[in-house]
Amino acid sequence: MKDLEGKTVFITGGGGGIGGGIAQAFAERGTRIVLADIDQGFAQEEASRLPRSVEVMTLPLDVRSPESWKAARVEAEARFGAVDVLCNNAGISTGFRPLFDIPPEEFERVMAINVTGVYNGIQTFGPLMAARREGHIVNTSSMNGLTPFASFAAYSASKFAVLALSDALRDELAPQGVGVSTLFPGLTRSRMSQADLGKISAGDPARRAVIEANMMEPVWLGRAVVRAVEHDEPYIITHPDYREGLRARHERILAAFGDPAQPDYHTGMTATR
């Protein structure tokens, strides 16, 4: 098990919700925290919630910009030294809308933040971790990155991409001693989820109250992330209620495997993990 005390954790989307919960959980392990957010004011708000004994700094960060990442890395390293754990958590939602209603510029923005933002973080800190032969990267996907549904196509596409990227990266970095985990949040209290909730429950306060009552508090997701880093676990599932939906989807996929499309076709190759 990894000892996290005194390590430095860099969290994007650190200005609320899951990012704040991750920060609280790592703070419980005695780490130093860097909270980075497009809105530094939100990050400062989350930093103020941490115990005074915690060493914490906040930074402005546009995850779409390699230059913004470079500037953030320089500041973080000047204060705390090498970053030991990177949590690529920043993300946005499209709300509950059919794909036909998502204009090209909005689709591109979702991909730029949810996917390219993760790539940029990995390119900023991953090579340094590999050179030191230690470190851990946590990429936030979503249960929608495992079980997509209608009205969330663009968001789900971005979160499936995060899963694929993370699985491949875990294999690539394992020989260098760097771990990679993927977080799959379900319904969790955050600005994004509450904004989406407002759209689907407008004019129905009773429905909103029921959904809000079933939102998980972010610190519990954070604690699951901490355990995954400590034990180098590949997947972080915090909402087990989605299990049967995922099982049904996988069964449909496996049922599609049959004889080769070309008679007597055989590659002699197998895909293993």
List its traits.
single chain, 273 residues, alpha/beta, Rossmann fold, seven-stranded parallel sheet, 9 helices, 7 strands
Tell me briefly what this model is.
The protein has one domain (8-255): Rossmann fold (3-Layer(aba) Sandwich).
What is the fold's blueprint, element by element?
Layout: E1 8-12, H1 17-27, E2 32-37, H2 40-47, E3 56-60, H3 66-80, E4 85-88, H4 104-132, E5 135-140, H5 153-173, E6 178-184, H6 191-200, H7 205-213, H8 218-231, E7 235-237, H9 243-255
Parallel strand pairs: 1-2, 1-4, 2-3, 4-5, 5-6, 6-7
Provide a descriptive summary of the structure in words.
The chain is of the alpha/beta class and 273 residues long. It has one domain (8-255): 3-Layer(aba) Sandwich (Rossmann fold). Helices cover 48% and strands 13% of the residues. The chain is built from 9 helices and 7 strands, in the order E-H-E-H-E-H-E-H-E-H-E-H-H-H-E-H. It has helices at residues 17-27, 40-47, 66-80, 104-132, 153-173, 191-200, 205-213, 218-231, 243-255, and strands at residues 8-12, 32-37, 56-60, 85-88, 135-140, 178-184, 235-237. Strands 3-2-1-4-5-6-7 form a 7-stranded parallel sheet, sandwiched between helices. Helix 1 (17-27) crosses helix 8 and helix 4 runs parallel beside helix 5. The chain is globular, with a radius of gyration of 19 Å. The relative contact order is 0.13. The model has no long low-confidence stretch (mean pLDDT 92).
